[in-house]
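Quick bug: Flagellar motor protein MotB output formatted oddly.
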Amino acid sequence: MAGDAKKLQPIIIKRVKKGGHAAHGGAWKIAYADFVTAMMAFFLLMWLLGSTTEGDRKGIQDYFANPVKISMLGGSGSGDSSSVVQGGGEDLSRQGGQVKRGETEQKRSSYTLAKLESLKAEQAQAEQARLKLLRDKVEEVLIASPRLTEFKSQIKLDLTRDGLRIQITDAQNRPMFTSGSATVQPYLRELLRTLGEVLGEVPNRLTLEGHTDAAPFTGGAAGYSNWELSADRANASRRELIAGGLDDGRILRVQGLAASQPFVKDDPLAPTNRRISIVVMNREAEDRFFRGAEREEPPIDVDNAQRPPEAGALIDRLPPPPPPSSPPAAGR
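Here's what came back:
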């Protein structure tokens, strides 16, 4: 009996759980993963900096500086570049560096020249419009004056390449000057002074030319011809314009052309060939005038210039002839 109770005694098994060492845990894997991730991000950043263009880097910089503004306004980046692979950076097949900079400078220079030409054309059109208004005003002044209206047929107004040209011509029975002289007739004096008042209101420069017909000048001082007569008449007209209110400093040239440029080419003796021509110059004509003046060579002082020596002086400068050789001795 006692042996059976001993056999039925329960068996107790004790299991002791031992704590693991810290070195055998999984925390190091997390630290290693963080390190690998940081290195991958670093090398990715290096690759991006080496493969992206300056514009892309500027866009990235602007994005992180103000992302709201970039997202609202947009901008150019690698996605809309001309790269073969979208977002893949600069296309290595494209030429860059100095060649690209030269093309940019050439385009910029062409754009600047185009803008200057456009501005110059606009200024020319505006000046042409002002000259047309001046022509209309001269016509209105002539119509408004009862005395000058009857001489309207002797006044020719036209727009030329150089500006507004005002030509006052002789009529068969109504000459501008006393025959053979530069004495101004009363009606021409009134007309020129009226023109001087009108032309004094515009800033343009002027030129004056005197013309005669082809009839040879007879009388007066010896050598006095249509050249001197046309120049004297142009200067007499200049004085009347100044008396009317025109600034003398605005007149660039006064010249006499005699009969070299007839108004009626088929009839060199026609009265209309005797005329005074006033040109209100545009800006282009003024520039041509001043450029021509700059190209002229300085005058030469003929009186003090070095002259070549005369023939006598050249002979005096010749070296003396060698002495004659002695005659040979007799018997030789």
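Actually, after a second look the formatting is fine. The chain is about 45% helix and 10% strand. Closing.
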